[in-house]
């Protein structure tokens, strides 16, 4: 690309960021004198780009409001950031809300890239590996996501059609607080005036949204993400588990995240128990099955006490016996594990 043309396009890119750009600022960013900046602005006007000249002490150039910009101009780093963001978002479930839009957007970006850059970026995407499988989630429709997001921002009530997990359908009026993406699923936290309580709703279970007149005061207290994680941790399940674990709340939450367990640090003990080092915390979980908990408790590598259910004690004892039995076993024959991973020197 000829150098003057590249600088004209660079001027357009600077103006795209919005606001008024002074002539000295533009000259410094482009590496030219102020007279050349004015000439470049004239070239953009000749190309029907509505560049406005603003007079005065803080004057300069800006684009006319409402101007529809031409296709984005991305440098190498920006193109890589966009494509990697689309790929990572699709695998984590964050961009599934737009269906195949992420794939079509990536395809469009690749089509307009120079051949050299396209080959380089394709090489990155072809050699990139992920340690977790792609997220599988039912994406919310953009016709649901966008009006709810607008209602959250403007504090407007909405009427929604909702299908519960058991298949029951209802029409509800909600005061939405926030939208949260968690583990490939999308949620809206909202006050349900008819029920008189705050609730969490899955966006993929909402089939229609209608904005209602009026407004509501935004809530105080926990932020939407905390509300969702607390709701998931306290949802009704088959088993209610209560533990006391030695360690700070922060240490325990690093192994038992907020969406899985509620952790509350206990006050320091008194009497003889006060001589035991370190704080203790109360941990509450609600789970459908208990069989996976012994391995999780072992991974904590901290003293713990099971308060309930009694069934969990037997599972932990059996797990400990299996570990002890495996530790005492001798390797079969003369086989020895070299400790080297396949394909490594």
SS elements, strand count: 11
What's the number of helices? 11
Main pleated sheet: 5 strands, antiparallel
Which structural class matches the secondary elements?
alpha+beta
- Tell me roughly what share of residues is in helical segments: 25-40%
Separation, N- and C-terminal Cα atoms: 47 Å
The shape is: elongated
Average pLDDT, all residues:
79
Secondary-structure element pattern, one letter each:
HHHEEHHHHEEEEEHEHEEHEH
Which spans of ≥5 residues are poorly predicted at pLDDT below 50? none
Alpha carbon gyration radius = 29 Å
Strand order of the largest sheet: 6-5-4-3-7
The share of residues in extended strands comes to 15-25%
Give a summary of the structure in a few sentences.
The relative contact order is 0.06. The model has no long low-confidence stretch (mean pLDDT 79). The protein has helices at 3-16, 23-30, 34-46, 76-92, 101-112, 115-127, 142-154, 224-234, 249-253, 293-300, 310-328; strands at 51-54, 60-63, 158-163, 169-182, 185-192, 197-202, 206-211, 239-246, 261-265, 280-287, 304-308.
Description:
The chain is an alpha+beta fold. The chain contains eleven helices and eleven strands. Strands 6-5-4-3-7 form a five-stranded antiparallel beta sheet. A four-stranded antiparallel beta sheet has the order 9-10-8-11. The mean pLDDT is 79.
């Amino acid at each position: 690309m000829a150098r003057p043309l590249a600088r004209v396009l660079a001027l357009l890119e600077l103006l795209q960021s919005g606001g008024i750009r002074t002539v000295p600022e533009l000259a410094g960013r482009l590496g030219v004198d102020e007279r050349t900046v004015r000439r470049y602005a004239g070239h953009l006007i000749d190309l029907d780009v509505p560049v406005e000249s603003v007079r005065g002490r803080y004057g300069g150039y800006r684009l006319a409001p409402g101007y529809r910009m031409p296709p984005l101009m991305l440098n190498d780093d920006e193109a890589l950031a966009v494509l990697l963001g689309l790929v990572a978002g699709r695998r984590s479930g964050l961009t599934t809300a737009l269906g195949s839009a992420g794939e079509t957007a990536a395809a469009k970006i690749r089509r307009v890239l120079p051949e050299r850059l396209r080959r380089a970026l394709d090489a990155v995407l072809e050699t990139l590996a992920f340690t977790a499988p792609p997220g599988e989630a039912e994406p919310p429709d953009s016709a649901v996501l966008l009006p709810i997001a607008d209602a959250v921002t403007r504090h407007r009530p909405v009427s929604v059609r909702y299908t519960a997990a058991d298949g029951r359908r209802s029409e509800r009026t909600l005061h939405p607080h926030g939208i949260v993406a968690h583990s490939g699923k999308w949620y809206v936290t909202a006050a349900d005036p008819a029920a008189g309580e705050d609730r969490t709703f899955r966006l993929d279970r909402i089939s229609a949204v209608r904005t209602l007149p009026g407004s509501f005061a935004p809530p105080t207290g926990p932020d939407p993400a905390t509300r969702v994680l607390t709701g998931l941790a306290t949802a009704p399940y088959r088993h209610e588990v209560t533990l006391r674990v030695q360690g700070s709340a922060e240490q325990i939450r690093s192994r038992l995240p907020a969406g899985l367990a509620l952790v509350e640090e206990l006050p320091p003990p008194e009497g003889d128990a006060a001589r035991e080092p370190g704080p203790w915390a109360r941990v509450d979980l609600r789970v459908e099955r208990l069989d996976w908990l012994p391995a999780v408790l072992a991974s904590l590598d901290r003293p713990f006490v099971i308060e309930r259910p009694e069934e969990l004690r037997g599972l932990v004892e059996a797990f400990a016996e299996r570990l002890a039995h495996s530790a005492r076993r001798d390797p079969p024959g003369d086989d020895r594990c070299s400790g080297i991973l396949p394909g490594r020197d």
